[in-house]
């Protein structure tokens, strides 16, 4: 499922990495793409990050370029896989692959050593050693691909048919629109040389100054707002501190990073027309091209019970779906106790 979507999302071509859709293509666990003209590794990575920005990934995740051969590294052949196992690495080396795009990150927990022998439990260490020796780059988008608009969760959310699909929670932008982290606000009266102070504030690198006139106690004041980066904040406050009457009016506000529109973990889907659980199962299996899914029916529910809303989360959805009210929950995996306690739960697991 996720490999098919990765193939739909990206194709390396001569000049760029472009969104592509293969509606009739049948994919196994591994897919290989070859390109006559190569592309520098950093350009491949840059284009992948444009498709699924790494800033959208969950904080606990390990995404991006995980294994980087020494430069220059030209990518002519890319292999896509859901999980990078030793068998997949065997195939990649045999076919002289330059780049592996693995949905799940093969490096998740920190590695304390890199061994190439047959030590039990050291297969991930062997993967890293073999990738570097074979000059194979490894990249994982994982939850960045889940959260991005048009990504895995949106694709899953289309399973039941027409309706609205919105993120369960929103991803947060990596920075504010201005790039500033704080805003300093202050007032300047007529008893101070405003031009000198404004000139000095505008000279601070990383500070953006805005000025307006306000009326206070029958007196016109200059209201100054300075958007600052972290280093600029310290400079601006140090510059203002000698002006006692002004410094007493200073307020420092932390700027919040805005939510990213239509992006975030999980999706809440509201159908235009309700369907029975039996119909929902048929549509989910058809959408995922699967013969079987796991279903846990809620208490006093039957296959004829109606579904109007569906909460979706690729992978383990326990933390994302916790507290979300829906008639049906579609997730990659969940704990048995959560299945038992959830009043109306559909668990779909794809390996």
UniProtKB/TrEMBL annotation:
Major subcellular site: cytoplasm
GO MF annotation, one: metal ion binding
Localization, UniProt: Cytoplasm; Nucleus
SUPFAM superfamilies in the record: NIF3 (NGG1p interacting factor 3)-like
Record keywords, A-Z: Cytoplasm, Metal-binding, Nucleus
GO CC term, one of those recorded: mitochondrion
Binding positions for a divalent metal cation per the UniProt entry: 104, 146
Pfam families: DUF34_NIF3 (PF01784)
UniProt-listed InterPro entries: DUF34/NIF3 (IPR002678), DUF34/NIF3_animal (IPR017222), DUF34/NIF3_sf (IPR036069)
Ranges in coiled-coil conformation: none
Subunit structure, interactors included: Homodimer. Interacts with COPS2. Interacts with THOC7.
Biological function: May function as a transcriptional corepressor through its interaction with COPS2, negatively regulating the expression of genes involved in neuronal differentiation.
Family: Belongs to the GTP cyclohydrolase I type 2/NIF3 family.
Alphabetical list of PANTHER family matching this protein: NGG1 INTERACTING FACTOR 3, NIF3-LIKE PROTEIN 1
Protein name per Swiss-Prot or TrEMBL: NIF3-like protein 1
Protein source organism: Erpetoichthys calabaricus
Gene name linked to the record: NIF3L1
């Amino acid at each position: 499922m996720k490999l098919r979507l990765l193939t739909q999302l990206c194709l390396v071509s001569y000049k760029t990495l472009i969104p592509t859709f293969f509606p009739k293509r049948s994919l196994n666990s591994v897919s290989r793409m070859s390109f006559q003209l190569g592309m520098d590794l950093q350009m491949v990575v840059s284009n992948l990050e444009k498709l699924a920005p790494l800033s959208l990934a969950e904080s606990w995740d390990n995404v991006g370029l995980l294994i980087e051969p020494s430069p220059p590294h030209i990518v002519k052949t890319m292999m896509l896989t859901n999980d990078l196992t030793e068998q997949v690495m065997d195939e990649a080396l045999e076919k002289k692959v330059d780049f592996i795009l693995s949905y799940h990150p093969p490096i998740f927990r920190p590695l304390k050593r890199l061994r190439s022998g047959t030590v039990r439990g050291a297969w991930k260490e062997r993967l890293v050693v073999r990738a570097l020796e074979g000059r194979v780059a490894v990249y994982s988008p994982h939850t960045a691909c889940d959260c991005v608009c048009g990504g895995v969760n949106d694709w899953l959310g289309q399973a039941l048919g027409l309706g609205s699909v919105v993120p369960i929670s929103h991803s947060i932008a990596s920075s504010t629109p201005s790039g500033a982290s704080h805003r300093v606000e202050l007032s300047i009266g007529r008893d101070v040389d405003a031009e000198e102070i404004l000139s000095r504030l505008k000279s601070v690198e990383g500070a953006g100054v805005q000025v307006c006139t306000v009326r206070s106690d029958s007196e016109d004041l200059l209201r100054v707002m300075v958007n600052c980066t972290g280093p600029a904040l310290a400079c601006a406050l140090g510059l203002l501190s000698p002006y006692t009457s002004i410094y007493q009016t200073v307020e420092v506000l932390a700027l919040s990073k805005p939510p990213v529109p239509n992006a975030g973990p999980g999706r809440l889907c509201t159908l235009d027309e309700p369907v029975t659980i039996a119909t929902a199962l048929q549509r989910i299996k058809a959408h995922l091209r699967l013969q079987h899914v796991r279903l846990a029916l809620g208490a006093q529910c039957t296959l004829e019970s109606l579904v109007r809303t569906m909460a979706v989360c690729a992978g383990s959805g326990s933390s994302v779906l916790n507290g979300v009210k829906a008639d049906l929950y579609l997730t990659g995996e969940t704990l048995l106790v959560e299945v038992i306690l959830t009043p109306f739960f559909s668990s779909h697991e794809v390996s």
